[in-house]
Design goal:
alpha/beta
Length: about 850
């Protein structure tokens, strides 16, 4: 779908409430205009519609601002589509009753409206792509949503057909309304019966007059006799009214004489002096009675206001009997300070508790650890002494028979002995092996003889046993020494451990233990105290704060009451001054009515006496008038009888004329003309009915789609329960056209009603908007211009249905530029902000001056 033209701005000058030129910027967006009724909101919509289409009336001067503007009435619309710009200017000149319009491009080229927007040629009562939902104005604009049928006809391209049907209907109607139009509607024989009936009526009237004749004799008077009596009555009436009779009366026909007599008898001058006087007196009396009522009402108002003022002054004195306003205000300040201090105390208590709680969370585990470690060290210290004593005893036992040094010495000796035995054994073995090998008889070294060698060889066998014994002795000594050394090492370890523990604990560990436990207890107690204080403050502060707030509220109410009472007293004083002024004005009116001097005192008694006196004067004047009226009625009665005589002579002539009319040449000529005319009307009717059948057939082809969409939109917009469905129906109108209306009902039961008969105000208002959204759903608006102008659619709309309406408007704004004006800003601003946001303009009429027009500004929601 191609981009559409959008309203960029509007310039309004001299149109309705607007005076000097005023520009309203729309920026191509949908726009919401808020403001009170009567301040020119609707004029903005009407200005747009008028600029495009004008009015469908010859004289458009009613839209001109006459009181404060003497120049041209002008509306200028600036349109934009991408880079394309156009300007539509419509003017109504000061000396003209018909406007002219032109379209201007940015280059200054002028274009015709019908060439630029060819679809707009259908406007002027038919289809439109600019729709106007008015506020019930007397004159509707083109494209009005209430003109449902016009827009549907244009969309279905039935507008020319319907226009032709209307022309045929109007032509036939015009011809029927010419001479004898009523007789043509009847069969010629019925016309003849009508003539016969008239003849019978004339005979009946003659018989009625003859049966109760207005003349005294048994023989009816001649026309000459009746005229003579009429002339005599004329002279008597002239004498009664003090009028000079006309000399030419005898030459006039009887009906003229009757008219003259009637004119004299009905003359407004009869009793005019008396009637004027009575009227004046009654007016004065009515004025006095009105003044009396006003005077009494004013006196009552003054008394009531004085009483009300005294009552307010009494209440004010009672309220300020103990303390004045300044003290009450200072009391409020004091209470607010107290409330602030309480909150600070509570915050301090909470802060202190959090501080102590944090300290406990850190310090208590440390103290518990220190206490535990100290206990463990003391317990270990007590066991170490026992273990050391036991080790000392074991060590004493081990060194009782031999000292460690002696053991060490013996172990050394055993090791030396073992070493020497091993060396000796090796030497003996080597010597024996050498001697045996070399068969020595003596030692080559010591020259010992073979006997010694023999002994040495024998002795060699004893050495392993000696070595074994020495090793056992060594092992025993080593084991014993290791026990002593292990015990001594254990003793040293235990002694060092004791020394370390002694160094790590205070000189007085029990006192330190008590100090740690005391510190722990103090911390727990501080925490409990802080917690208790916090809980107490948390309870007391809100309670006291609530008491303070109640007291502040009470004092503020007292101060507000004092202010209201002072305002009421001032208002009563103002009203009393106004009432006194009105009282003096009423007293002046009384003086003016009664002709009293300016210094005459006025009271209710004087008013009542004046009213009674004027009433007596009126009765006397009415009595005099009645006497004259009685004489007038006598002449009217005589005239009535003479009229019957004249009617008698007229009926005689009419009876003779009617009887001869049916055989006259004129009768036959009229009969032929009627036959020709009826034949022509029959051909008009046949064409008219054929076009009606064609229209109905074409419309019914689209009726299902139209009805479905209309029903869906109606349900969305109204959410009706009693009458949930809607449909479009055709009805014949008195104007000859086929009317299309929206009906609501229950489709399952085939029950349908007019919306005005069954719907509430909200739903009825919603039905007015159904056509636009229906057209939108059916794709009926596909032109270069799609505007929707809506004036105060929310009458009787509740919040829920207004949200539905706004959602439909948001959907419609996807293809149409919306301009909506309303006096109910609070109803719309939430939906506008939520659904439209920055995609829409919001304007507000903030004032209205007759000399300058509406004051409009852009607002943000």
């Amino acid at each position: 779908m191609t981009e559409k033209f959008r309203l960029e701005s509007i310039v309004i000058e001299g149109f309705k409430g607007f005076t000097s030129p005023q520009e309203i910027k729309l920026n191509g967006k949908s726009t919401f205009v808020f403001g009170p009724n009567g301040w020119g909101k609707s004029s903005i919509l009407e200005a747009v519609s008028w600029c495009m289409f004008g009015l469908d009336r010859e004289n458009e001067s009613e839209i001109r601002n006459r009181d404060y503007y003497l120049g041209d009435c002008r509306v200028e619309i600036n349109l934009i589509r991408n880079k394309d710009k156009l300007k539509i200017i419509r003017k109504l000149r000061a000396d003209s009753g018909k406007s002219d319009v032109r379209i201007v491009s940015p280059q200054g080229d002028e274009k015709k409206l019908t060439e630029t927007f060819p679809q707009l040629r259908k406007l002027g009562g038919l289809g439109a792509n600019v729709l106007f939902a008015g506020q019930g104005t007397a004159h509707r604009f083109v494209g009005d949503l209430n003109k449902f049928k016009d827009v549907i006809d244009a969309y279905l391209e039935l507008d020319r057909l319907e226009r032709l049907r209307k022309l045929l209907f109007d032509e036939a109607k015009d011809r029927k309304e010419n001479h004898y139009e009523k007789q043509i509607k009847k069969v010629w024989s019925e016309f003849e019966k009508e003539i016969d009936k008239k003849i019978g009526d004339v005979g009946s009237r003659l018989k009625n007059i003859s049966s109760n004749p207005p003349w005294e004799s048994t023989v009816p008077p001649t026309e000459s006799e009746t005229k003579t009596r009429l002339e005599s009555l004329y002279k008597d009436v002239c004498s009664f009214q003090n009028i000079s009779p006309e000399d030419s009366i005898s030459t006039l026909p009887m009906k003229k004489i009757i008219d003259k007599i009637s004119l004299i008898l009905e003359s407004p001058t009869f009793g005019a002096g008396l009637e004027d006087t009575i009227k004046q007196k009654k007016s004065s009396n009515s004025s006095l009675e009105d003044v009396k009522r006003r005077y009494e009402s004013l006196l009552n108002d003054i008394n009531r206001r004085q009483n009300d003022k005294q009552r307010c002054e009494g209440e004010l004195n009672n309220l300020l009997s103990t303390e004045n306003e300044e003290k009450l205000k200072k009391r409020i300040e004091s209470l607010e300070i107290e409330c602030k201090n309480l909150l600070q105390e509570l915050e301090t208590a909470l802060s202190e508790y959090r501080k102590i709680e944090n300290n406990c969370a850190i310090r208590l585990p440390e103290l518990d650890s220190e206490i535990k470690n100290l206990k463990l060290k003391l317990e270990r210290l007590s066991t170490l002494d026992q273990e050391i004593l036991k080790v000392e005893q074991t060590l004493g036992t081990l060194t009782k028979d031999i000292s460690e040094d002696e053991l060490t010495k013996q172990l050394g000796e055993a090791e030396n002995k073992a070493g020497k035995l091993g060396e000796y054994f090796d030497l003996i073995n080597k010597t024996a092996e050498y001697c045996s090998k070399h068969a020595c008889t003596q030692c080559p070294i010591c020259e010992s003889n073979s006997e010694f060698l023999q002994k040495l060889s024998e002795k060699k066998n004893d050495i392993p046993e000696q070595i074994s014994h020495t090793k056992k002795e060594k092992a025993s000594l080593t084991e014993q020494l290791m026990k002593i050394q292990g015990t001594r090492s254990n003793f040293l370890i235990l002694k060092n451990e004791k020394e370390d523990i002694v160094r790590s604990i205070p000189e007085n560990p029990n006192q330190k233990m008590r100090e740690l436990e005391r510190e722990r207890g103090d911390l727990i107690q501080q925490k409990e105290i802080a917690y208790s204080k916090k809980e107490e403050m948390s309870k007391e502060v809100p309670e006291r704060r609530e008491e303070i707030q109640k007291e502040i509220f009470s004092i503020k109410q007292t101060l507000e009451t004092v202010t209201n009472l002072k305002t009421q007293i001032q208002n009563y004083e103002t009203e009393l001054r106004d009432s006194d002024d009105k009282k003096r004005k009423v007293e002046k009116d009384v003086r003016d009515i009664l002709g009293f001097s300016a210094d005459t005192e006025i009271d209710l008694k004087k008013l009542e006496n004046a009213i009674i006196n004027i009433g007596s004067e009126i009765q006397n004047l009415e009595r005099e008038l009645n006497e004259k009226t009685s004489g007038l009625n006598t002449y009217k009665s005589r005239l009535k009888e003479l009229k019957r005589e004249v009617d008698y002579h007229h009926l005689l002539k009419l009876s003779a004329n009617l009887s001869g009319f049916k055989t006259s040449e004129e009768w036959r000529e009229v009969e032929e003309q009627i036959k020709e005319y009826l034949a022509m009307l029959d051909s008009f009717q046949e064409i008219y009915e054929a076009l009606g059948d064609a229209y109905t057939k074409a419309f019914n082809e689209h009726l299902t789609a139209i009805n479905q969409t209309v029903c869906e939109v109606y349900k969305t917009l109204t959410n009706q329960v009693s009458y949930p469905d809607a449909r479009v129906s055709q009805i014949s109108s008195d104007s000859g056209s086929i009317e299309i209306v929206i009906e609501v009902g229950v489709s399952k039961k085939d029950i349908w009603r007019k919306p005005t008969e069954v719907l509430n105000e909200q739903a009825k208002n919603a039905v007015v908007l159904v056509p636009y959204f229906a057209f939108s759903e059916l794709g009926m608006l596909q032109h270069d211009l799609d505007f929707l102008l809506i004036d105060d659619p929310s009458r009787s709309f509740d919040v829920t249905h207004l949200e539905l309406l706004m959602k439909l408007l948001k959907s419609a704004s996807d293809h149409a530029q919306l301009i909506l004006v309303t006096h109910e800003k609070e109803k719309f601003e939430g939906s506008v902000r939520t659904l439209f946001g920055i995609t829409a303009n919001t304007l507000e009429v903030i004032g209205f001056e007759p000399e300058s027009g509406p004051k409009i500004k852009e607002v943000s929601l």
